[in-house]
Amino acid sequence: MAANASLPKVAVEQVIERIFALRQISRADQRLLMSALLSKNSLGETEHKQINRVFDALQKGLLRVVD
């Protein structure tokens, strides 16, 4: 997971776009987003809002979790 610590913001945005386009999130996507949130590299406010939107959608059952 060390590679995710320096994940570019563009990659986070692309992953989130794909998640909402497919209306599903993989376990790998979840780990990637959690890693981005917990990394020492700060994400911007926009990225935080996008990631929170994904987790809100998960809680509401709007996204399907796939392996």
Which parts are unreliable, with pLDDT below 50 for 5 consecutive residues or more?
1-5
Oligomer: single chain
- What percentage of the residues does DSSP assign to strands (E)? 5-15%
Q: Count the helices. How many?
A: 3
Average pLDDT, all residues: 84
Specify the structural class. Answer: mainly alpha
String of helices and strands: HEHHE
Apparent shape? globular
How many distinct domains? 1
Q: Radius of gyration, Cα only, in angstroms?
A: 11 Å
Notes on the structure:
Mean pLDDT is 84; it is low at 1-5. A two-stranded parallel ribbon has the order 1-2. It has one domain (7-66). It is globular, with a radius of gyration of 11 Å. It has helices spanning 9-22, 27-38, 45-59; strands at residues 24-26, 64-66. Helices cover 61% and strands 9% of the residues. With 67 residues, it is mainly alpha-helical. The longest helix is centred in the C-terminal third of the chain and has 15 residues, at 45-59. It starts with 8 loop residues before the first helix and ends with a strand. The protein has three helices and two strands.
